Amino acid sequence: MKFASARIIAGDIKQMVAFYEMVTQQRAQWPAPVFAELILPGATLAIGAVDTVPLWQSGSAEPQSNRTVFLEFQVDDIDTEYDRLKDRVTLVHELKTMPWGNKTFQFRDPEGNAVSLFMPETEAAKQRFSGR
């Protein structure tokens, strides 16, 4: 089995895609007007318009209601990314090192989803991520 993507259902897909293009510094691909993908090393972030929900089942997803999932992006230089984004996003917390050894900061996307950028900081954390 291969993990293919994480998908966000957006009330305003253009705003969400523009936000994630700004964060990732990658251009999205638009296979359809109601669906975009940011294809990154390691995984794809898919963003679907709320209009796509009935294609599965009406009411099976709802924009702006996620309170349990964090999208995490590993970066090479967390300090540089923090300086680049801190005034452009709504911060949840500033830079800190977590008990498992990642230096991170967290913010919210335009629909309230939690996003974390991180970099392994301790030797144990660096070892966990080597070869991934």
Task: List the topology elements.
Elements: E1 5-10, H1 13-24, E2 29-32, E3 35-40, E4 43-49, H2 53-56, E5 70-74, H3 78-85, E6 90-97, E7 102-108, E8 114-120, H4 123-129
Parallel strand pairs: 1-4, 5-8
Antiparallel strand pairs: 2-3, 3-4, 6-7, 7-8
Give an overview of the whole structure.
This protein folds into two domains: 1-51, Signal recognition particle alu RNA binding heterodimer, srp9/1 (2-Layer Sandwich), CATH 3.30.720.120; 69-132, 2,3-Dihydroxybiphenyl 1,2-Dioxygenase, domain 1 (Roll), CATH 3.10.180.10. With 132 residues, the chain is α/β, with parallel strands linked by helices. Helices cover 23% and strands 38% of the residues. It has a four-stranded mixed beta sheet with strand order 1-4-3-2, with helices on one face. The chain has helices spanning 13-24, 53-56, 78-85, 123-129; strands at residues 5-10, 29-32, 35-40, 43-49, 70-74, 90-97, 102-108, 114-120. The mean pLDDT is 93. It is built from four helices and eight strands. It starts with a strand and ends with a helix.
Short description:
This protein has helices at about 15-25, 55, 80-85, 125-130; strands at about 5-10, 30, 35-40, 45-50, 70-75, 90-95, 100-110, 115-120. With about 130 residues, the chain is an alpha/beta fold. The strands form two sheets. It has a four-stranded mixed β-sheet with strand order 1-4-3-2, covered by helices on one side.
